[in-house]
Design a protein that fits this description.
By secondary structure, the chain is an alpha+beta fold. The protein is built from four helices and ten strands, in the order ββββαβαβββαββα. The strands form three sheets. A five-stranded mixed β-sheet has the order 5-6-7-8-9. Strands 1-2-3 form a three-stranded antiparallel β-sheet, with no helix packed on it. Strands 4-10 form a two-stranded antiparallel ribbon. The longest helix is centred in the last third of the chain and has 12 residues.
């Protein structure tokens, strides 16, 4: 008859022979691995503050089309908070969507104008400014079955290294969010009210002091 003991992660079995001499056999004990950690999904992303989705079927229609959009008061308030503005009193955009590369991509060209209220970095007082900018973006529509979408993109004569297309999500192009992103990029990160100047005691310490 044998005796066993658990030492660490090995099970040691001692078998007794007829003359009392013990023979040792060792085998790995059946220890269960730790349970895998479960990762719970995070909260869903909130919808864009200024959303104007356009179906790719409409965007890729032959000849394209022109779209004018305007943010309402609630959208301006929410987007202004996202962009860290004191206020966003107007946001209008005009966009032209047209298919390219035999309808496999959509080019969006647009121009927006926004009236914003920012805090002057010199006087720490709010002031109003107009921000306007033209932009262009490229979107790739999902390729037909059996066709590699990336092969289409990088073999296309309409695409260069500085103009790589964005993927289309849920068969929609959200031109409102596109305008919001370009407005974010166009904002002055160090806004200064026209005419504001640095006091003489601090002049020369900031490379932007020369701005009037």
């Amino acid at each position: 008859m044998g005796r066993s003991s658990l030492r660490g992660h090995k099970l040691v079995v001692v078998e007794e022979g007829r003359e009392g001499a013990g023979r040792r056999r060792t085998r790995t004990a059946g220890i269960s691995p730790p349970a895998a950690e479960t990762v719970s999904p995070g909260p869903p992303e909130p919808p864009p503050e200024f959303s104007r989705p356009v179906s790719v079927d409409v965007a890729a229609a032959e000849g394209g089309f022109v779209l004018e959009i305007t943010a309402n008061a609630a959208e301006r308030e929410a987007l202004g908070r996202r962009l860290g503005l004191e206020g966003l009193t107007r946001l209008d955009a005009k966009l032209h969507l047209r298919p390219i590369d035999r309808g496999r991509m959509v080019r969006v060209k647009g121009r927006f104008e926004a009236e914003v209220i920012q805090i002057c970095v010199v006087t720490l007082e709010p002031f109003a400014a107009v921000v306007t900018e033209a932009f262009s973006a490229l979107f790739a529509i999902e390729a037909p079955a059996g066709v590699n979408r990336f092969e289409i993109l990088f073999n296309s004569a309409t695409v260069d290294d500085d103009d790589l297309p964005e993927p289309v999500e849920n068969d929609r192009i959200d031109v409102g969010e596109l305008v919001a992103q370009h407005l974010s990029l166009a904002l002055d990160t160090h806004p200064r009210r026209p005419g504001a100047s640095i006091p003489e005691a601090y002049a020369g310490t900031d490379p932007d002091d020369s701005r009037a």
